[in-house]
Amino acid sequence: xxxxxxxxxxxxxxxxxxxxxxxxxxxxxxxxxxxxxxxxxxxxxxxxxxxxxxxxxxxxxxxxxxxxxxxxxxxxxxxxxxxxxxxxxxxxxxxxxxxxxxxxxxxxxxxxxxxxxxxxxxxxxxxxxxxxxxxxxxxxxxxxxxxxxxxxxxxxxxxxxxxxxxxxxxxxxxxxxxxxxxxxxxxxxxxxxxxxxxxxxxxxxxxxxxxxxxxxxxxxxxxxxxxxxxxxxxxxxxxxxxxxxxxxxxxxxxxxxxxxxxxxxxxxxxxxxxxxxxxxxxxxxxxxxxxxxxxxxxxxxxxxxxxxxxxxxxxxxxxxxxxxxxxxxxxxxxxxxxxxxxxxxxxxxxxxxxxxxxxxxxxxxxxxxxxxxxxxx
Length: 377
What we know:
Elements: E1 2-5, H1 13-16, H2 23-38, H3 51-59, H4 62-83, H5 89-130, E2 141-148, E3 159-164, E4 169-177, H6 181-201, H7 205-225, E5 234-242, E6 248-254, E7 260-263, E8 266-269, H8 281-284, E9 291-294, E10 300-304, H9 306-309, H10 321-328, H11 337-352, E11 360-367
Parallel strand pairs: 1-2
Antiparallel strand pairs: 2-11, 3-4, 4-5, 5-6, 6-9, 7-8, 7-10, 10-11
Helix pairs in contact: 2-3, 2-4, 3-4, 3-5, 4-5, 6-7
C-alpha cells in the first residue's frame, strides 16, 4: 500500500518556494535602484533601501539577510553620488538601523523555524508509526491510502487505517477517533496496535471486534486515571478478504459510513453501521454483527472518514462522494486503488478550497490481480 500525506499543494508559498526566497529582496533592491534613477531630481527614493533587509529578514536566512543588509548600506552612498539627489543623513541612518536590526530578527526567525521543523519531524515519526507503509500486494490485496490532516503543521490526528496480512486473508481497518489532539492520537495508536495483533491471531472476525472493544475500554480507564475528562469512542470499518472465498468479503461496521464499491458495473454502497462505535458496545447491547457481502474481483472497496463526507465548500455544500464516484465509472483504470484515492483526495481539496476542519483518511482495497506478496501461510 502506498501512503502519503497529500499536503504539498496546501503549504504556504514561503514554505513551497523557500529556496527561491532571495529573489524577493533582490528584486526589491533592483527596483529601488531603477526607480531612483528614473524619477526626477526632486524625488529621492533611495531611502526605500531600508525595505530590502527588512524583507530579507522575513524570507531568508541570517547569512543572506546580512548580505542584503550590507548591499543596502553600500548602495545608499553609491546612488547618492551617481544621481546627485538631495539625501538627508537621517535617511542614511534609517537604512543603517534597518540593516542592523534585520540580522538578529532573521536569526530569531530561523531559530523558530528550526523548532517548528523539529516538532514536525516528531509528528511525522508518530504518523509513520500509526499509519505505517504497507508493501504492494500485501496479504493478497492491492491497496492505497491518503491522509490529509486538518492541521497542516501537525500532519497527524485521530484518523487511522491499516492493512494486515493474516493466515486467513487480508484484513483492513479504517477508523475515526472522536475528538482531536494527543488523546485522539494515543487512542488511534492503541487501536491500530491491537488490530495488528488480533487480526493476525484470531480467525473469527467477531473476536477481532471484541478485542478492539476491550482495548478501547482499557485505554479509556487509563486515560481517566491520568486525569482525562472524557471517554473516547471510535467509528470504524473492518473488511476481511477471505482466501477461501474469493467472491465474498466479511465486514464489521462500528457506526461508520458504509464503504463504497466501484467497479465496471457502477457504484454501490455497502451497509452503514447500525451498531455502536468501538467503546460503546455496552450501551448498545453488544457488538455489531459480521456481515457476508459479495465482491467481484474487478471491484474496489473505498472506505473514507467523515473528513470526506462532511467536507464543505465556501457555500456550505457537502462534498458529493457518490456522485463523484459515479462520474468515474467506465474510465480506464478508475478502480485502481492508487488512482482512486488520488482522484477523490484531490476532489476533496478542490471542493474545500484547501480549508479542512477535520482530518481526512481514505483507503481503497481490492483483491490483487497478480501474485500475492505474502499470505503468511
